[in-house]
Design brief:
With about 200 residues, the protein is an alpha+beta fold. The chain is built from five helices and seven strands; from the N terminus they run βααββββββααα. It has a seven-stranded antiparallel β-sheet. A hairpin with a 5-residue loop joins strand 3 and strand 4. The radius of gyration is 17 Å and the shape is globular. The termini are far apart.
């Protein structure tokens, strides 16, 4: 049983991705394109504050999803940064906590990346289900992170080719249904944040 001070989720994910550290930095610090190259996870991203040139202090507002019907609205601020090596995000909104990403070049054009997500859910109706459905929410997160890794790799390749077209990727069920999209736009509007229509 978790103590009150422990987060609801403490998830570590290891990736391997074919990229130089600078290439990965360029993708990660370009939040307004997230929903274009990774619509299966990011429904929208909005830059709130640019921060320093290296990314420290950058603040973004995100609307994210997994394979489950619910979505999360949250703000992420880059609060610690070693350029092209690691970054830490302070998270607030539908969940609070810390996210971190660190990369280690393997010397053959690939990176080993480690993501750690330590969050407590604040979204009221999900909050009531966290203990009961914890394993399902873990699978939802792992699904989202796996999709993000695959599509991030495609985005690195797209940028290398200097291609204008994004890799084919569409929102997944049930977020690809018109009535769910309308519902999510209403949720956005209720928070005073209405992304432009596609």
């Amino acid at each position: 049983m978790r103590s009150p001070a422990e987060p609801d989720f403490d998830i570590v994910t290891d990736w391997r991705i074919e990229a130089e550290p600078e290439e990965l930095t360029a993708v990660v610090l370009d939040p307004e394109l997230l929903h274009l190259w990774c619509p299966t996870v990011f429904m929208y991203g909005e830059l709130v504050r640019r921060g320093r040139a290296d990314g420290l202090g950058m603040t973004i507002r995100l609307h994210t999803k997994g394979f489950l019907p619910h979505t999360f609205f949250f703000v992420a601020e880059v609060v610690d940064l070693v350029p092209h090596v690691s970054m830490q995000l302070a998270l607030s909104g539908d969940f609070d906590g810390v996210g971190s990403l660190s990369v280690t070049p393997t010397g053959d054009g690939w990176l080993d990346a480690r993501l750690r997500w330590r969050v407590t859910v604040r979204q009221p109706w999900i909050r009531r289900l966290v203990r009961l459905l914890h394993p399902v929410f873990m699978l939802n997160h792992k699904w989202a992170v796996g999709n993000a890794r695959r599509l991030m790799q495609a985005e690195v390749y797209r940028r290398r080719r200097r291609a204008n077209a994004f890799a084919p990727a569409r929102p997944t069920f049930p977020h690809n249904l018109a009535f769910v999209q309308v519902w999510q736009r209403r949720r956005s509007a209720a928070r005073g944040w209405v992304p432009p229509a596609e």
